[in-house]
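--- STAGE predict ---
source: upstream dedup step, 1 unique chain passed
mode: sequence only
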Amino acid sequence: MTKPLVIIGIRTNVNWLEMDEEAFFSQGRGPINKDIFKPNSNWLFKHWVYIQFWDSLLKQKYFQTRHKLQKFAEKTHTQVKGVDLIIKGKQALFQFIKKYKNDEWIMLPTDDDDFFNPGLVDKVLGHFDADIIHWNTLCFDTTQPRLGMHVEQMKNNIFPSNSYAITNKLSKLPGPLLEEMISRHCIVRNYTQQFLLVHQHAKANLSIYNKNPLSFSSTRVKTMVKSKINNYFEAIGKSLQGDVECDFPWATPYLVKIKNILQECFN
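--- STAGE serialize ---
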């Protein structure tokens, strides 16, 4: 069998160093059709306030730190063996699947701060006859100070962030549905069941879901009070002082680097 084209599809194409208030609030969250689904302005407002607290309380600006994580992740994406193409931004990804719907390809959707096992491609090629290929992922969570830095092995079929691939066989779906499966990992499980899609599990840990305090939704911060945010940041700083413990040698260097980037802010 001829090897299908393997694409890493980064859902966003953001220049974090140029992000400002206007650009931030112009972001659409959720499904593709912005005429129907509007951004959650309340959520965006809270996130923006959180960013202002970050910038006033910590040693490094929020968007500067976000930029460093993005660039580190992008560097590691180029090191995944067997990847033929890296495409950034939803619109570019959608254009690709429309243009090449009759060709053979595997797309690995990801956020711009998540990571793949360098040997992932060899593990998933054997499942190319499926519509969707998924695998175990390691969640590196630095958002819960009481638990410290911890690595959770996620084995179930909830398809977090970058724990699945889609193949060209999904071109049989209506375009908007396929676009959603690329851009919104949270709906992949439901769509797989609803449309009776063929899915196969590559039984290995092949990605890292990076759950860090830059992700406002992951922090579960509910009260936008400066003193409480400061207490939360101080607790995060203390939790980052320990050693990263991980049972998977391929992942450890990635987790240490993430920790080091965050420590530049909190310590």
